[in-house]
Amino acid sequence: MKTLLALTAVAVTTLTSVSAEARRDCPGGQGYWDEIVRNVRVCDTRTENYTVTLKNCNYSGHLSLGFLWNQPDFPLPQVKYKSDSRRGVTSCPTSIYTSESEIYWYKDSNGFLKTDWATYSGHLFRNSEQTYTEQRTRTVETNCRTEQRVTRVFRCGFEP
């Protein structure tokens, strides 16, 4: 009889430990391990060095004052000199269009001072160009394929 009780106790213990596991963070303390299978894209990679040719471009020119909706409190210049540069570009156009705005003061019809925008715009012409090269590195993927990955996840409750 003692042997029968001992065998029954071992069987019950074995059955509960196989199908469920106790966890403090699960309601009722029961849970089980589940396997999740995911398809993953895997590629072989190699690193390659390459050279890129870039330019620094310098521009200058005059911008003209556009239409003013209100008469300024002080005279604004009709033309502004402007210089600009582009760094690390692949080409230098002969000219670039640019515009810039600034605030000016004027008196409204009631004599109150207010502000408005004055816009200057025009083409800047290229006055110099420097060419240089840079060494860069990139990672190239080859032999891409889909592989299955299995992850074990603990779930609360009983196995479905």
Which keywords apply here?
160 residues; 1 helix; 5 strands; disordered N terminus
Task: Describe what you observe in this structure.
With 160 residues, the chain is mainly beta. 11% of the residues lie in helices and 66% in strands. Strands 1, 2, 3, 4 and 5 form a five-stranded antiparallel sheet that branches. The protein is elongated, with a radius of gyration of 38 Å. The two termini are 35 Å apart.
Tell me the layout of helices and strands.
Elements: H1 2-19, E1 21-22, E2 30-65, E3 79-89, E4 95-107, E5 113-156
Can you give me a brief rundown of this structure?
Strands 1, 2, 3, 4 and 5 form a 5-stranded antiparallel sheet that branches.
Largest sheet: 5 strands, antiparallel
Give the overall pLDDT as a whole number.
Answer: 86
What is the radius of gyration? 38 Å
Specify the structural class: mainly beta
Distance between the ends = 35 Å
State the shape: elongated
Question: Could you tell me the number of beta strands?
Answer: 5
Helix content: 10-25%
Uncertain segments of ≥5 residues (pLDDT<50)?
A: 1-19
Spell the H/E element sequence: HEEEEE
* Percentage of residues in DSSP E strands: over 45%
Counting DSSP H or I runs of 4 or more residues, the number of helices is 1
